[in-house]
Known about the structure:
3 domains, ten-stranded antiparallel β-sheet, binds CIS-heme D hydroxychlorin gamma-spirolactone 17R, 18S, globular, Catalase HpII,  Chain A, domain 1, Hemocyanin, N-terminal domain, about 700 residues, alpha+beta, about 25% helix, Rossmann fold, disordered N terminus
Amino acid sequence: MASATTKTAKKPKPAKATFHDETVEQPSGGETHQKASDDTIMTTQQGVPVSDDQNSLKAGSRGPTLMEDIVMREKIFHFDHERIPERVVHARGYGAHGYFETYENLSDITSADIFQRAGEKTPAFVRFSTVAGSKGSVDLARDVRGFAVKLYTKEGNWDIVGNNIPVFFIQDAMKFPDLIHSVKPEPDRGFPQAQSAHDNFWDFISLMPEAMHMLMWVMSDRAIPRSFRFMEGFGVHTFRLVNAKGKSTFVKFHWKPKLGMQSVVWNEAVKINGADPDFHRKDLWNAIEAGEYPEWELGLQLFDEDFAEKFDFDVLDATKLVPEELVPVRPVGRLVLDRVVDNFFAETEQVAFCTQNIVPGVDFTDDPLLQGRNFSYLDTQIKRLGGPNFTHIPINAPKCPFAHFQQDGHMAMHNPKGRVNYEPNSWGEDGGPRESDKGFKSYPEELDAPKQRVRSETFADHYSQARQFYISQTETEQGHIADAITFELSMLEREEIRVRIVSHLLNIDEGLAETVADGLGVRKMPKPADAARPTRQDLKPSPALSILKNSPETFEGRKLGVLIAEDSPSILLNTLKSEIEAAGAEIILVSKRVGEIELDNGTTVTADFKVDGGPSVLFDAVAILLSEAGGKAMAQIPAARDFAGDAFAHSKFIAYTEGSTVLLRKIGLSEELDEGCVKLGDASNAKDFVRICARLRHWAREKKLP
Ligand code: HDE
């Protein structure tokens, strides 16, 4: 019946489509109108040209405004209604368009159309988000990141609504409202915003042993990613893939970032939030606009029911993961984001992901968290977008033909045409769409069980994988986890909650529990928390769970911040620039003011940031290229001292010139310079510096810091 709205290309960019079409399709049987005039003339919503957008209609020049003013009343009425409810969770997010490219035919595993043809490209929209904060909160909160992918396949929209962490806090959807209430601002005082470091969150978590595995992840560096481009994504639940013969295979979905994983340190995150609360969204926007299209590989962990039976945990339990060492991740395609949105509200805000959006060849399992989500998402979209026709909004509409007899409701854009709006009917060819054998069929899982409110015994081991995650981390990462837990707990008012958490940590790793207890001044060690199952000590570390054990060994997609002043050495700057660009990274110039800066050879360069607008936390590594006079001048500027001091404290690689040592000495660094700091004398060690930047951070320094 209806078909997706026609889209015409506006700018010559890849796969560019626009919603503001020159051709406006008339709903419900209307004809297609070409716009009579060009769209440079401002009109009302009714298309009436506006002659004066500055002044309301008044009685005289100083008299009261007249009710008759249709132009002003319409403008203000519309403004009054601009807001829609923000998402109850994942309110702060950022989206982009792209495509998914299939590597190979997977028809032996699934009949999903998207996996039938190698090389096929499927349009995609992705929205990344934080969970706890409001729409206007900061990007670098310690939090889980949403990683929601909408694939506009030829057999309908398939949404993989995942996170950047492969497990979840709770096992049953019934507890989700409690979890979210606990982490959101406390209801009497309305704070803290976008933070888990408060009593309510830790009180709840300390009473929910099932959350311990996920807690380890959110206290790890996974919860403070450097960029959306540098984080993994996971479907979390076990799903099914079903082939044409009806054979089902269990599957876990993984998105692996092409540029590798990278996170920031907590002190850096706090400062980024002040320096640039939009850090992640800007990073994504800028990368795409620069043609550096972020990319992820989709990987599948595939296993059958018999294999799943052999695991010592339940694959229906979303607090558990399947270690990659047990079931390897098979790459099956790539996701490329190559187009920013035309309009944030129309696309990123109105996009409606639903876990229930699956396609033939994909199916659910009985994971009780997933089952609950399948109700929640549709329900929440109706509240948020105002009615049942949110699929008529272009970002949510399928890009394949669709036809059904659903009609009416608020904002109906494409009701069925003609006389028939029911089925069965005897109108023959004019009778509208019919069912098809190719349609979606649920996997005929056999069920014969009593109705009951219980938690399966197979979900009872809450600590073994939490421990496995912890022992899989490098020493540096383990230190960050201990620091994060200690910091968060230090923000609580109630001592007994801290102690309760320590009692859980004792079931995970005694050393961790002791470090945290020590950091919090807990004098008497509690007993380990009662555990429904003892923690398994025999699980081997899984290197795939660590960020640092999987270092990408590349500086590609990263940024070098260079502090310069008048008289800075042009040769070194030029070498750094060409080496950094050859590495696929970007160089950003920071100085005491923006605009032109004259170098030692009389040439000029343009500084991108004034030093207090471009602190080193915005960069992955820094170079301090100052002449002696420049060094002296910068040593007087507090923001320049922070630039160098923070870069050092955050374990960044630092290149510096002899002239810069004045600045370094001023912040007490002269004695402490280490192998992560490279003194630049000539072009060749500028090259060496760029080479070592591929290690991303000089973690050895962290141990030596107080
Ligand atoms: Fe969500 N979640 N969730 N969630 N979730 C929402 O849907 C919910 C869960 C996730 O960018 C809401 O559109 C329940 C797990 C992402 O628009 C809501 C439960 C995972 C996004 C909702 C969960 C997620 C949401 C709020 C427990 C990772 C943002 C607004 C059963 C696998 C999507 C909305 C976007 C959003 C409910 C748990 C990921 C209320 C009931 C587990 C990425 O429907």
